[in-house]
Amino acid sequence: MDYVKAFLVGGIICALVQILMEKTKLMPGRIMVLLVVSGAILGCIGLYQPFVEWAGAGASVPLLGFGNALWKGVMEGVGKDGLLGVFKGGFTAGSAGICGALVFGYLASLVFKPKMK
């Protein structure tokens, strides 16, 4: 049942973003930034973590979850390194996901031979 819940929650988030893309004139990059910032704000006010615990990967995998992870990293960095942690914490928290995206994107490009259009 956890898989079904994660699938439904992630699907609802994606459907809402798709509606936002089609009904507004916002560019996809701005919508992505809006999602990351929204996840950080929801994490800051304490609403996102209970949502992640309930929804699982359906809430932690989309860009909202990335914003929440950045927020948690910044808070840990501030607790550990003070003001310098504001800058270091986000990089530390987001580095594994970004590195994974780069490595797997590169491996996929080797397998599928992308072509420029």
Task: Please outline what is shown here.
The chain has 117 residues and is an all-alpha fold. It has helices at 2-23, 28-44, 48-55, 57-60, 63-81, 85-112.
Describe the structure in your own words:
It is a single chain. The protein is mainly α. The protein has one domain (2-112). It is built from 6 helices and no strands. It has helices at residues 2-23, 28-44, 48-55, 57-60, 63-81, 85-112. It is globular and about 45 Å long. It holds the Pfam family SpoVAC_SpoVAEB. It comes from [Clostridium] asparagiforme DSM 15981. InterPro entries: Spore_V_AE (IPR014204), SpoVA (IPR005562). The chain crosses the membrane at residues 6-21, 33-51, 91-112.
List keywords for this structure.
6 helices; SpoVA; transmembrane; globular; 117 residues; transmembrane helix; mainly alpha
